[in-house]
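BUG: 3D viewer hangs when loading the predicted structure for this chain

Environment: internal workstation, default settings.
Expected: structure renders.
Actual: progress bar stalls at 90%.

Input used:
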Amino acid sequence: MARRLRSPFVSVMWVLSTVNCIMMGVPAGAMLGYAILKLSNTVPMANIGFRILPFPKRPPQKLIDELRKIVTAHLSDSMNRLHAVAAEIRPYHKRGKLVGPALTVKVPPGDNLMVHKAIDIARPGDVIIVDAGGVTAQAIIGEIMSNHAASRGVAGMVIDGAIRDVGAISASTFPVYARGVTHRGPYKNGPGEINVPIAIGGLVINPGDIIVGDEDGLVALPQDIAAEVIKLAKEQAIKEAEVLKAIKKGKLDRGWVDQRLRQKGCDF
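Structure tokens produced before the viewer hung:
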């Protein structure tokens, strides 16, 4: 429960106001009402580092459906390759595309208490994405937690840390991405936070950002740029399709290579 904190200034002012009321002969009932009003206006103090915040607005399903058709390479190219998660965080599942809004979780290395809570509160289609500090000493999830998440309709899980039970996860189509693998299990002590900005593989991810993953890795799209990135990625797909057609016909123009070398000052 959030605590309420009164600053010293507010406390002093409340005492002075009370003394003033007594001197003026204000009835006790009125003074009590005044005190309650002052206390109700104190500032709430959050438990920083151990809290669950509300989930922001989820993206329209249309965006999710469109992104499911687009490979991460085209999305990454359309964002100047700056919104990509580090290559060290890779897929461990058998196959399957990952698309959905980020339900972010921040935990101490090796502790998964708040990940359990994230599974409990996730909505179907959410991607549970966990900042575990990139530490791989203990696994954050394994077969049991990934199966439980899948049964609740979670779209997939991303762990900047370790996982275990890779034999089972690698045979599954439930998307699981992680930095590493270990047999050592996690602790369940907390603290942790849900729905806060996190850092995953060198990329800052905010709650509600759209996560897209495939065999090549992961990208994240803020919702306000998703429509524009989809448009650019479709254009990129058309360009690459034309290149592949030219290759098959033996008519690919490679003149740009020598032109670029000259621009860079290469002698040949």
